[in-house]
Amino acid sequence: MAIKLYNTLSRTKEEFVPLKTGQVGMYTCGPTVYDYAHIGNLRTYIFEDVLRRALEYNGLQVNQVMNITDVGHLESDADSGEDKMEKGSRRTGKTAWEIAEEYTQAFKKDLRDLNIQEPHIWCKATDHIKEQVETIRCIEEKGYTYRTSDGIYFDTAKLKKYGVLTKIVVQDLMAGVRIEMGEKKHPTDFALWKFSPEGTQRQMEWESPWGKGFPGWHIECSAMAAKYLGPLFDIHCGGEDAIAVHHTNEIAQTQACHGTNLANYWLHGYFLQLGQEKMAKSSGEFLILQTLMDKGYDPLAYRYFCFTGHYRSQLSFTYESLTAAQRALENLRAEVKKLDPTLDPSPDGKGEDGYKKKFLAAINDDLNMPQVLAIVWDLLKDNSLDAAQKLGLIKDFDRVLGLKLTESAGESAIPKEIADMIQKRQEARTAKNWAESDRLRDEIAKLSFMVEDGPKGQTVRPKKFGE
Ligand code: AMP
Ligand code: ZN
Fold this sequence. Notes:
By secondary structure, the chain is an alpha/beta fold. It folds into three domains: 18-269, Rossmann fold (3-Layer(aba) Sandwich); 295-409, Cysteine-tRNA ligase, C-terminal anti-codon recognition domain (Four Helix Bundle (Hemerythrin (Met), subunit A)), CATH 1.20.120.1910; 417-462, no CATH class. Helix content is 42%, strand content 16%. The chain contains 15 helices and 16 strands. It has a five-stranded parallel β-sheet with strand order 5-4-3-10-11. α4 (129-141) crosses α6 (217-229). The two termini are 45 Å apart. 42% of the residues are buried. It binds adenosine monophosphate (AMP) and zinc ion. Zinc ion is lined by residues 29, 221, 246.
């Protein structure tokens, strides 16, 4: 079945055809590690994870590369302001290198908590200065650069096809724009290499053919993507904010050096909003995953919440909707847990294919996850399927959903530690030691299980959200 994906380059949903049959090269812009990733950033990584899983579900072999921006991302996209890493260093009192390491590890933990698959290749900007310098040299040799007192800039007016992603016309932008111009010739020009300011010692700086300094933000992705995936590969993704500047400039650099658009398909995840505002690290108004977890939410409830909206529309975050997602996920797991495959041996096969087809049609229609959730609920309620068939389908669909729906299906969900405490509590009750019995009940509750005393003795179950 054809996979259709919305390509920002053509502004249409296109059939996805990889360059090499059966294989996909995919580059995903990674985090700027000067602070924690917020749940808006994580929405974009969840979308990219689902994209990769959907391609793999279709039998394609994906090679995913993700960068870590640990230098060069200035406060303003117009190449002005302080380097975010140096600013993070001032904020925390640690070195830029230390905070890069700390927030990279925090980001990897977020990926694990959200069941996001790690890329096949991680690449840090600071480990690839040589490749970035070489790419700038290549652009310079082709005649697309000029020098100012603070750096080497890309001359966007020289590139006929500048702005293919946004349909920007450089000349139109020139009239009456208010952009921090400095010595730039055109508002859309951008830094390839920035010189270390006179008289200051930056924590992160390198020698280069143009003078001591550091690379501009966009060059890292062009250089590293081409190194690991070649100068033209299949899919490049990021958040919607990358369209106008970051990805537009990645394409410009690659057109200048290699004559390609870097990737054939450019996909963008739309923003998570907090009320009417976009969630942004720079505004300081942001939520991190750990905050949700500290409030008792399962991180996968956030993943479920993200599936309630299509990746190409903005999604508004509220605790009410996250709570609804948590309840839905708990109910889903409870339904799946009831599916003991040994109980219902009636393999009639009716409808099974239908659900698989519907599921594939939904993911291959530009990753329609809200529809996928509806299909999952429909199949669980469908009495024409037996438990084994339902479990088989859920297991299969969870390869894309990544909600860990079947991990405890058909088996006891009570860990040994809890079972031992229940046993001890039983002994305490037999000895009429009510204080010890109550103490054990509270201990068990702390571990997120509820003990209830009924006529037939104790029963134990995982706590429900909010209990
Ligand atoms: P950054 O760490 O700022 O470089 O951003 C990491 C990724 O998150 C990029 O792909 C951004 O486009 C994306 N992003 C930033 N803010 C949001 C948001 N509010 N919602 C969804 N994605 C976002
Ligand atoms: Zn990038």
